[in-house]
Amino acid sequence: MTYKVVQWATGAMGKTCMRGVIDRPDLELVGVYVYGDRKNGQDVGSFLRREDVGVTATNNIDEILALEADVVIHAARVQPPYDSHDADICRLLEAGMNVISINGNTFPGHWPDERRQRIEIAGRKGNASFMGAGLNPGFAIEKLTAAASGICLDVTGITLSETVLCHEMRSPEYVFDLLGFGSEPGEIDPNGEGWAPGALLNDMFEEVVACVADRLGIELDSIRRDHRMLPAKQDLSIAAGKISKGKVSHLDWRWRGIVDDRAVINLEIAWVMDGEHLKLSPDDLWRIKIDGTPTVNLALGLEAAKGYTGRTSVEQLAVAGGVLNAIPYVVDAAPGPVATPLSTPWRKPA
C-alpha cells in the first residue's frame, strides 16, 4: 500500500525526511507544516532545491488536521521541557493521524503517568498511535544493543559510547550561550536541575536507559547522572567562534543504570570540539560493549554511499531511514503511545 505522509517542521532533519518520502514509491507526501511565515504558501520543492512537487507548506494547523494522512513525521526542534510538543501531537492523534517523533519518545513505560494517559486518551479518540524513531534515541541502544545481547548466555553490564563532533555547529547562541562551550569550568553545573540542556537530555536519555533495562529484564534501583565539562588544552577555532585554552571544549553526558549500587547500564555521549579528551577515535560514532558470556564488542560508523555528493550528513540520512522504515509499524500499532519495536528493517517497496 501507499502511505500518505505529512511532514511536520522543515529544518535540516525535516527536509531530509521529506526528500526520502518524495523519493519512495510507497510513500506520498500530502502535507507540510511550517512554524513561520517565510515558507508558508510555498511549494515545498522551493526549499528542497527541487522542482515543484505539488504540495504547499502551511502554518495553519487546521489545514493539516483536515488532511486524510496515515502518518505525521514530527521533526519539530527539540526544546525543554521534553513534552513541550504534546499539545500538537495530541491534536494530530485525535484527528486520526499516527505520529512518529524524531526526538526520543521511544519508551512510554518511563513517562510520568499523567503524560502517558494524555497520549493514550488522544490516541484512542483518533484510533492513532505515537512512536519515537531515530538514531540515539531510537536505534543504538533500544534496538542494536538489545539485539546484540541475544548471543549472550549471561549479561553483567552494558556500555554504549557515542561521539558527537560539535566544531561545525555555527550558532554562537546555541554553542556558547545554551550549551556552555567556552565557559569557565565549574561555572555551569551539568548535573544541576536548573540547566535547560541537562533537563531536556536527562528526560530523553534516562528513558533510553530504562528501555534497555526493560528489554533485558533488569530491574534498576535508580538512574544516576554523572555529567562533566572539560577544558580545552589549547586555543580552538570553531565554526561558531573561538574557545580559549582552559575554557570548556568537551561535554560528557553520562547516565548510569544502577543495581545494588553498581552501574550495570552506562550510556555515555561525548559532545566534543576536538578529540583531546576522547578515549576513542572521534571517527567512531558508537562503541558498544556488552560484558557477559561471551563479552560482545561492537563498533558502528556511517559513511556516504559511493558517488554521493549531497550536503546532507550521513547521520541525518540515517535518522530519516529509521523514521521512514518505522512507518508501517506505527500505522499497524495499537492506539496510543507505543515503544519503538526491537526491529524495523528496510523492506524493498513493492
UniProtKB/TrEMBL annotation:
Residues 9-74 form the Dihydrodipicolinate reductase N-terminal domain. It holds the Pfam family DapB_N. Coiled coil: none annotated. Residues 205-336 form the 2,4-diaminopentanoate dehydrogenase C-terminal domain. Keywords: NADP, Oxidoreductase. This is Dihydrodipicolinate reductase N-terminal domain-containing protein. The lineage of its organism: Bacteria, Pseudomonadati, Pseudomonadota, Alphaproteobacteria, Parvularculales.
